[in-house]
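Please check this:
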Amino acid sequence: MLGCAFLNRKLPVPPQKPLECPPDSDARVIAIPAKADFPSSQENMKSLRVACAIIEQNGKVLAAQRSERMSLPLKWEFPGGKINEEESASECLKREVLEELGIEVMIHEPYPEVTYSYPAFMVTLYPSRCTISAGEIVLHEHKAVAWMLPEELCGLDWADADWPIINTYLERHRKTSGL
């Protein structure tokens, strides 16, 4: 099996036709609106665009644990942040990693974007594989960081949106390392 086991959450789908009661029932027929009559939960949902860094060093990958005061508290993630309207994903990634960890990174390879719907918001992640080009890690926002072997990544409590990135990373790592 490639990657980690991942459960993709699906939003509930409303019924598409009215319920019918048996003819000899005292119950009333309750009409349930068709799917088109329900507002799309994704239409009303806050949408974020986030760049994130898969930082490699000496055969390990950097994981960052969110602080207790951040949304998704204590979940692990790839460091990064929100993309401003006037910047590209790579510009954002470099800015955010410098702000959050005090390091500069060199981007080597962009990964496919991932869109994930949480109950309160939707996020599109723009991941890139990177290495540290300057600086020493200093935590400004995260509770902790850990250098993990690729096969250890699945042992952390990751933010749900990061799982598809981990799976893609592990697949590519296995292909390039001949495993």
